[in-house]
Write a structure and sequence with these properties.
This protein is an all-alpha fold. It is built from six helices and no strands. It is elongated and about 55 Å long.
Length: 183
């Protein structure tokens, strides 16, 4: 039988997946009717790819944190949680710098349909990353204090599930918004 916490997180992830699918479909639907700035003329795929590597690298590190907990390695647990938080924060800083560059080019949500759909889609993803970072930082605080004495924690497991979801969503967003644009 599945734990209540895990089931709750899986149901939440399913509802968020539907939300992101709709945002991605809206982006795809409206991409052909854009006048003015577009993804191809505005985005720097190479720069975003670097920050993407950081985010995608955070999935193995959160997995290593879970594994460390199962092995009773408290120090490794909090080290891997810290690395995960750092990688996620680097990604968010990259997104913030991309937004700053776009704003400097007068590309905003209200500029055109590209701006509206791009900032909505990536902004909601960034918000989910931020929520995940807060949850991971809380886990890190508990880990540093030695709160995880057993080899299993529903909290670590459910936050890790959420974090993997955030990474998978970014793979789809990066593929649709950046890679598909430049193919």
């Amino acid at each position: 039988m599945i734990e209540k916490n895990k089931l709750g997180m899986l149901l939440f992830i399913a509802s968020e997946a539907v939300f992101f699918i709709l945002l991605i479909l809206a982006y795809i639907y409206f991409r052909g009717s854009v006048t003015g700035p577009t993804a191809a003329s505005s985005l720097d795929i190479g720069r975003t790819a670097i920050f993407t590597v950081f985010l995608l690298s955070s999935s193995p590190t959160v997995w290593l944190a879970e594994r460390s907990l199962k092995q009773g390695e408290q120090r490794r647990l909090w080290v891997w949680l810290l690395v995960t938080v750092v990688f996620g924060a680097v990604f968010l800083l990259g997104q913030a710098s991309e937004y700053a560059h776009l704003f400097a080019e007068n590309i905003t949500m209200s500029r055109n349909l590209f701006g509206t759909t791009f900032f909505t889609l990536t902004g909601f993803h960034g918000f989910h990353v931020l929520i995940g970072l807060v949850a991971l930082a809380i886990l890190l605080g508990f880990a540093v204090r030695g709160e995880f004495q057993e080899s299993h924690s529903a909290a670590v497991e459910t936050v890790a599930l959420y974090w993997h979801f955030v990474d998978v969503v970014w793979i789809v967003i990066f593929s649709v918004v950046y890679l598909w644009t430049f193919l």
